[in-house]
Amino acid sequence: MSATAARRAAFATVLRVFEQDAYADRAFVTAARGLDPRDRALAQRIAYGTVQRVRTLDYGIETLGRRPVSKLDAQVRAALRIGAYQVGYLDVADHAAVNESVELVRAAGLERAVAFTNAVMRRLTEGLAGLLWTLPEEAPAKAALKHSYPDWIAESWWRELGQDGARALMQAQNEPPETVVRLIRGEIDGEPTEILGAYRVARVDERALEEGRIWPQSRASQLAALAVGAKAGERILDSCAAPGGKATMLAGEVTAVEIHPGRARELEENVRRLAASNVRVVNADATDLPPELTGFDGALVDAPCSGLGVLAARPDLRWRARPLPELQLALLRAAADRVRPDGTIVYAVCTINAAENEGVVDASGLEPDATLADEWPQFAHPRRPEFLLTLPHVHGTSGFFIARLRR
């Protein structure tokens, strides 16, 4: 016997993420090359789910396997992790999960570890479901273990959303997110949403994407671009523009800034693909823009952040995330300096963290435009209604904080 192609791809992805510090999405593309759509979907579900749930899975492996995960061979550790995920969270036959993990270890040349892997997997089939079911979640650290998050994220959400909201958010971001695309031109087989031009789809049509007829983009991300309210004839600055989803939504004469040369080239390619002829790409540092880039009517600052609103789509991000309020404030102030008096600046970040959200806006000294919430009342921030805050467990889309400010 040998492990199936889907399990081999999931195994390779998990191994690279945790042993080589690779990004899950990039590792998966390489590992899944050549798979048919069905195997690819299964491989992605196993790989991404394992990466997301690794803290809880390791607890189960150590409790039932009676050996520290850190002491195991890397290949054994990866095989047990994906096996435990299938046993604990997928509707997979126990014997299949056991056999596949054993065969992965054997294929890695670790025959001496086969019997151990088999024994631990059998213990997991007998006891993991009950163990997961009984894990408590009445305090941040306990909920973080049950739902597989770093303690600091659980503690932050507990403070800001309360116990019930924090737990619901943790649960929501362990589930696959909805697939939404923006229709650029033509027709689409999808369900229209409350965001004009945004459609829920079963899958992304790769041909339509390549031809520039659609762009994968969450409803919340599209909302951030709409909040700019850009009009024909205006000059708009997008100071952190790559990969270009929001920049190519904006009307007017758009200057799209990106600091990284490679990402700036990608941004230029996407601008061409989407036929956004009104967008000009500038490879520059948005905190130190060329002097001629000034006098804009409006600006969008989609700043780098901890990404706590997009954890469902980026499975390894929870283990890498860190708040960036100092950088965010510097970017916001720099953009505001390049906007004309009484111009508007939209500050948007895909995170659910007060220090990076309302904390940055308050520190900027800019005046919030309260009419934003009048335009989108269903997304009003629960504590600060002058801002917008989309929440995965409430709105079913990625988490975004959006503020429209006046200079």
List the helices and strands and how they pair.
Layout: H1 5-19, H2 24-31, H3 37-52, H4 54-65, H5 74-89, H6 94-107, H7 114-134, H8 140-147, H9 151-172, E1 180-183, E2 191-192, E3 198-200, H10 206-210, E4 214-216, H11 219-226, E5 235-238, E6 253-258, H12 261-273, E7 279-283, E8 296-302, H13 325-337, E9 339-349, H14 358-364, E10 367-368, H15 371-375, E11 388-390, H16 392-395, E12 400-406
Parallel strand pairs: 5-6, 5-8, 6-7, 8-9
Antiparallel strand pairs: 1-3, 1-4, 2-3, 9-12, 10-12, 11-12
Helix pairs in contact: 1-2, 1-3, 1-5, 3-5, 4-5, 4-7, 5-6, 5-7, 6-7, 8-9, 13-14
Helix amount: 40-55%
Distance between the termini: 67 Å
| Count of separate structural domains | 3
Name the average pLDDT. Answer: 96
Largest sheet: 8 strands, mixed
Low-confidence spans: pLDDT under 50, at least 5 residues? Answer: none
CATH arch. level architecture of the largest domain: 3-Layer(aba) Sandwich
Q: Number of helical runs?
A: 16
Instruction: Tell me the radius of gyration.
Output: 23 Å
Order of helices and strands: HHHHHHHHHEEEHEHEEHEEHEHEHEHE
Strand content: 5-15%
* Strand segment count: 12
CATH fold annotation of the largest domain: Rossmann fold
**Regarding CATH, which class of the largest domain?**
Alpha Beta
What class would the helix/strand composition place it in? alpha/beta
Which term fits the overall shape? globular
What is the assigned CATH homologous superfamily of the largest domain?
Vaccinia Virus protein VP39
